[in-house]
Structures are given as C-alpha cells and as structure tokens.
Specification:
By secondary structure, the chain is of the alpha/beta class. It has one domain: Alpha-Beta Barrel (TIM Barrel), CATH 3.20.20. It is built from twelve helices and ten strands. An eight-stranded parallel sheet has the order 1-4-5-6-7-8-9-10. A two-stranded antiparallel sheet has the order 2-3. α4 links the parallel β5 and β6. The longest helix is centred in the C-terminal third of the chain and has 16 residues.
Length: 259
C-alpha cells in the first residue's frame, strides 16, 4: 500500500509561517523540493495545496505546476476564498481543466466562518465534481462544530477535517460520530499517537487519514506519530494511504488507465 500524505503545501512562504527548518520562508518551496522531502521520508504521493498567500500565483499556480511536472506524485486541490465573487467558477474551471481532485478551505486565513452561507456554492461545486473538501479545523471560526454543521447541510460531500480539531479533538471526534461524511486528518495534531485509536473506536479506522502539513511540519515527525499509535499493520496501511486513496478514487483511476 503506498503512503499518501493528505496535507502538504507548495508555493511561497512569508512571515506568517515563522521560522521553518525545512525551507527559507522567504523563498518558494516547489514541487521538486517536496519530491525530495517525500523521497527522504518514504512518501509515495501527496495531496498539495498552495501556501496560503492570496492570489492565483501563490495559491493555484504552484499546485498546477507541481501536478503537471510530477503527475505520479501529486494530487492537486484548489484553494478557494469564498469572498472572491468568481471563486466557484474558478474552482470548477480549474479543476476540470487540470484534473484537480479536491477543494481546500481555510476560514481563518481568509476570514469567514466555516458554515457561513458564502461557502455553500463552493461545497455545491465540490459535489458536482464528486471531490472532497479539506477544511482547516481549529481556532474561532473554524471549530469542529461549525464544520459539522456544514457537513450536515451537504451530506453527500466528503469533508476532510484537517488537524482533527487540534486541541478540540474531542469535538472533532464527536462531530465525526454525528456526521458520516466527515473524515479526520492527522496533520499537526499534537496528540495523534494518543488519540488515533480512540477516534478509530468511535468512527472506524476507515475515516482517518494521515497528513503532515509539510513543509510547515516535518512529515517524518507526523509519520512517527502514526507508527507509535499502537495500530495493527492493516490499520496503519489504511491511515497512511488506503483511506485517502479510496476517497480520491485512485485505485479506480489506475484500473481504468490500464484498460
């Protein structure tokens, strides 16, 4: 089973990210940089988003470039800001033209509530494309409860809760119990090694996916949290790649491409 990182970034950093060990935050961290990092730690594929600075050149173009240069290594998501009036159309157009596989939302950086009505057209668009939505899931405005409300309004759209709510992980697990379309993603979760088994006992191992938030967090550290969480080999295989591969339909696409 390949290891698939469900949460990585490429693009240009800034002071917002603080001092980073993996790259100079004032320069670009591009597809080739991520590939080297992935090879170093044993990651086969990665879902990639931009690095958060507003605008096409920072949020979308580095992702498109990486997917085009390394199609076997990257799965691109479109980072949309619902404040932008053309965000829905831009997401649909770019996803269809470049084969992007999902939508990224960050209510904190872009200043809105996760369940605000301005988000609904983007979630509807994800439903039209049959792709998942990854949402940053901690801090006021993006708490698990708000994401749960959004998920309840769009039960046919898969919602990936990035970071498992961080300190609010109990809320994240509760929300996932209530909403079967919610997936918990482990990146930057301080207590992953302690709570993954708890989450699996409540919602099932099939709804937990590994992510690193690289290069903002080191993927080796995030991988180690899964390795020491007391999972069986079968459970680890699902968390480290099988589950997100299923959500993204990677096995089905590979089968169709061999026909």
């Amino acid at each position: 089973m390949p290891v698939i990182d469900a949460h990585t970034h490429v693009g240009r950093g800034d002071e917002h990210y603080g001092q980073q060990a993996l790259w100079d935050r004032k320069t670009h961290f591009l597809g080739e940089d991520m590939v080297r990092l992935m090879d170093d730690v044993g990651i086969d594929k990665a879902v990639i988003f931009g690095l958060g600075r507003p605008g096409f050149e920072d949020r979308v173009k580095p992702v498109l470039d990486a997917v085009q240069r390394f199609p076997d290594r990257f799965i691109g998501f479109f980072w949309a800001n619902p404040h932008e009036p053309d965000s829905r159309a831009a997401f649909l157009r770019t996803a269809r033209e470049y084969g992007l596989k999902g939508l990224k939302l960050h209510p904190i950086i872009d200043s809105y509530q996760a369940n605000h009505s301005m988000v609904f057209p983007l979630i509807e668009a994800a439903g039209e494309l049959s792709v998942p939505v990854t949402i940053h899931s901690h801090q006021p405005g993006s708490q698990p409860a708000l994401i749960g409300d959004l998920a309840s309004r769009f039960p046919t759209v898969t919602i990936i809760m990035a970071h498992m709510g961080m300190a609010a992980y109990r809320d994240a697990i509760y929300v996932a119990q209530k909403e079967p379309n919610v997936i918990l993603e482990t990146s930057a979760q301080p207590w992953t090694h302690r709570i993954v088994r708890v989450a699996a006992s409540r919602i099932g191992i099939d709804r937990i996916v590994y992510g690193s938030d690289a290069p903002l967090h080191h993927p080796k550290v995030e991988l180690t949290k899964i390795e020491v969480a007391g999972l069986t080999e079968e459970e680890k295989a699902k968390v480290l790649g099988g589950n997100i591969g299923r959500i993204l339909g990677l096995a089905r696409e590979a089968k169709e491409s061999r026909r």
